[in-house]
Amino acid sequence: MKRSVFDNIISFLLGISWAFIVLGAYIVFKIFLFMGVGSALFFAILYIILGLFFILLLETMLTYKERLNESKKQTELLEDIRDALRT
What we know:
Layout: H1 5-31, H2 37-86
Helix pairs in contact: 1-2
């Protein structure tokens, strides 16, 4: 099945988002480690939650696009059925 440019871009952004979450959480933890392990862990978890929110947005965009494509297919089928019943 051929993928659109939109699907490729979203997949690329999803991969980059996961990389940013993993590396960013480590960097945030290291940066705030001077404040204590508890604070560093808190800020790292906060960073992860914000990153997961971005991934959720991207996944929602993919879901809506798939829903739109399915609606278009269903509409086409219903129009074919309507045309078949008219003749």
